Every structure is written in C-alpha cells, then in structure tokens.
Amino acid sequence: MPANGDLGQLLQMGDDSDPCAEFLKELPKDIKRRICALKKLQLQSLEVESEFFQRVHQLEKEFESKFNKLYDLRRKVVTGEKEPTDEEANAPLLHGATPEELAALNETAPETSDKKGVPNFWSHVFENCETISEMIQEHDKDILNYLIDVTTTVETAPEEGFSLAFYFAANPYFKNSVLTKRYFLQMKPEEDNPFEFDGPSVIRTTGDQIQWEDGKDLTKKIIKKKSKKGANAGKFLTKTIKADSFFNFFDPPACDHDHQNEDDDDLEEERELLRADFELGQLMRSVVIPRAVLFYTGEQTDDDFFDDADFEDDDDMEDEDDD
C-alpha cells in the first residue's frame, strides 16, 4: 500500500492495482464528496496539532529558567563548588529501598573522600544509558571524565529547535571548553505531504568543530595499506579514515535538500540517519539531562523513552525470519 502522500498521485494516474484505489473507485460520487470534506477536516486538525506542538515548545522555553536554577545547583554539587547541607541531602540514596537496605549500602563505605564533588559523574551517567554507552569507545572514556556538565536550551529564534551543550574541564585532548550540538525542527506539516505529520521533525543539525590537539583526534585513524598496482606497487601507503567515537556526535549527518540527483535508497538512508540522530538528541534533552542522577545510581534506564511499538515490530520481524 502506498504512503498517504503518494495516494493522490496514484489515483490521478488511474492505477487500479492498489486496494485503496480500488475501494475508492467504487464509492458513489456523493460519498466521495463527503470523504473529501472529511479530508479537509483532517487537514484542519493537523493545523491545530501543529499549533499545539508550537505552544508546547513555547511552554518549554517559559519553564526553562526554572529548571536551569536547579541544574545550576546540580552542577555546583557535581563539580565541588557547593557542599550540600544536611537538609539538602536528606533524600534516600535509592528510592524505595528499606532502611536496612540503605544501611547496608553504608556498611563498608569510608566516611569521607579526598575528592571534590562527584567525580566522573557525567561519564558514569552516559555509561548507564544504553543508547549512549553503545557510542562510547574505549579511547573516549578518559576524555568523558573531563565532562563537567551537560545542558539543553530551547531555541525559538531565528529558527525553532533545541541545542545541547557539553562543558569540559581543561584537558589534553582538545581546546574547546564547550561543544554544542544544535537541532533545527520542522513544527508544521509539509505542504506537499501533510498527512505524514507526526509532530516536530528534525530538518538539519549542526555541531561545533572540535579543535583537537595535535595527534589527539579520536574521530580519525591512520591505516597503512600495501599498494598492489601503479607506481607505488609494493609500497605501504598511509590513509586517514573515520574512526568510531562518541565525538562523531558533533559531526552530524548532512541534510541535502536538493535531491534531484539522489536515488530513493540514498534519500531514505539520509532520513534514517537524521531520525536516529534526532532521537538521540531527544533522549538526551528529555530524559538523560533531567534525570541524570537516576542514571548515575542505575535507577533510570532509557527503555521507556522508546515506543513499545518499535520493539513489537522488531519481534515480529524476528518471528518472520524464524519462519
């Protein structure tokens, strides 16, 4: 069955092979006319839905300062700028644990530490988030120990979207003190394909260029390959290729709006990369940043963020493969 946006073209072409076209073709004209009225109501409904998402975006911006006051206090505790008072620290270490279980957590713990704040807080948060931990390579881990804060900002002008800012202490790997990733969103239905609207979607992303110290770029690696032909036959040549790294997150997939020379497979792959990158950004802004301490303790996972239907589809596919 074709996508909603292709159905109109299908009918105009007179292609009766599709069951939708077959069904609609047989409807009396007066019923077709009423269906057209329902379609117009659906378009108007999508406009209201778009207005709703835009209002939510504005509301997020309105409440941002309230969240930021709390996140700023969190940063100070994490970095050791602030030592919490007894009253500020009177929450249980693990929510729902019994007094006996909480006491057991302190049985062998030393009374004090010679370290300030909460060492390696954010790197541990990322390690406990399965989606992010899958991106982290062994060579990334030391750099992430220099990560001291992660924040998100709702963008309203000149374009709507959001940004993620990663703050790093001085380190031997790169010069940047902040690395920012920006997501620009489409908040309204597309004019040529309105019925595929399912809330805000990413139209492009940008990331700060990392100013790596000499020889420290973890996103690239040099390989040696023996040339088999040409003037250099038999000689080893060096080539720089892209390496797996968490820091490729700041080199997002490009979004080429000129698709005239692009086949369907390339276009779909580009969209999938953008969707995956957007999903990761949404996970960070809506779950990881607000609930960071719960990821640190292991009480929070990223499972609930993903639509259960996605997992059901995966299971169905596995069942089909087994058949």
UniProtKB/TrEMBL annotation:
InterPro entries tied to this protein: NAP-like_sf, NAP_family
In terms of domain of life, where is this protein from? Answer: Eukaryota
Location within or outside the cell? Nucleus
Cellular component aspect of the GO annotation: nucleus
From the Swiss-Prot or TrEMBL record, give the protein name: Uncharacterized protein
> Which biological process, per GO, is one annotated for this protein?
nucleosome assembly
- Is RNA-binding among this UniProt entry's keywords? no
* Region annotation Disordered: where it falls in the sequence: 302-323
User: Which keywords are on file for this protein?
Assistant: Nucleus
UniProt lists the family membership as follows: Belongs to the nucleosome assembly protein (NAP) family.
